[in-house]
Here is the input.
Amino acid sequence: MPRHIAIIMDGNGRWAKARNLPRALGHRQGVLALKPIVKTCARIGVSVLTVYAFSTENWIRPKSEVDALMSLLMEFLRAETAELKMEGVSIRTIGNISKLPARALAALQESMQRTADEKRMILNLALNYGGRDELVRAVNRWARQGGDQALTEEILANYLDTAGLPDPDLLIRSSGEERISNFMLWQIAYAEIYVTKTMWPDFDPEELIKAIRAFQSRTRRFGAVE
Ligand code: FPP
Here is the structure.
């Protein structure tokens, strides 16, 4: 079983467009799709699930779409925190969340606090997240704390937003695009990548199991010979 699964939830917009619906409805359907995926991951023994919910680049989308995404985040937290807690899921984030709208940040902090003691699985929401931004913030933090010895991989990893978490074993991207899109650049060094053409709103637990089976059939070499 992969210990850590990371997902680029792509295709909400195209899913909506194909149905002549506004993009925001695609995102709403995307949140609905996320719920059973979180539950399934927790139940089958995945330790960390990281989902790319809002990137540092997403701010340039129309204000109405950014607002819709923030509202969906708050709605998700309000509606799901109690159930996630019952499932043993702890909510955490990566990304520069200090730049999120105050109301979204407050809702996040409340959900994180309420679920902080849960141990079954971490649901890691990537919000205002960019891999390059994370690396720059990490190095700046290290420098501010008087980092004077040579920086090593281990030291840098401790300054990343993912400090203390295992690296993703499996990276899933929906909607067929074969891109990384600035997601977890450091952490996916040895991740197995699985791309499905399914649009995120249609991604269901059956698809998830297919991705995990594909992962289990691969030989991971981490740079060594077989
Ligand atoms: C990509 O679809 C998806 C996003 C930019 C946001 C993903 C967000 C969600 C699934 C909902 C919010 C999450 C939470 C946790 C509340 P796209 O709009 O780029 O699709 P397209 O490439 O088809 O246009």
Summary: The chain has one domain: 4-130+169-216. The beta strands are 4-8, 48-55, 89-94, 121-129, 170-173, 192-195. The CA atoms of residues 53 and 126 lie 6 Å apart. The first strand starts at residue 4 and ends at 8.
